[in-house]
Amino acid sequence: MTDQAVETQHISDRPTWPALAKGFRRKCPRCGKGPLLFNYLKVHDTCGDCGQEFFHHRADDGPAYLTILLVGHLMAPALHVTFVQWRPEPLTLFLIFAVGCLALSLYLLPRLKGAVVAYQWARRMHGFGQAD
Length: 132
Description:
By secondary structure, the protein is mostly helical.
């Protein structure tokens, strides 16, 4: 094998789906053991287990956008079906769906942030391109 073929094979050896699953669980996408986040949404500078650096990630607004997208697409049809089927009182409907949207958003936001950072790691984006 040529040096370029070995380097190309080495560069593409980070499978995306396992990294996304580890990131969604808020674990290091490399080893799957060390915590990726602390204080709800802050990303550790390095993994405590394997030493992978995370300080150069660029998650920015991506996780918030994905959270809004998912919560909206899940709750809007549920709101419509609930209103058409059972016609609850407006205050009851508001309270149930306000609490549901808030709870689902708070649940998804750190998990989606972990998945975005893991995706960047798997695709060698934003400084994750160095050799392991």
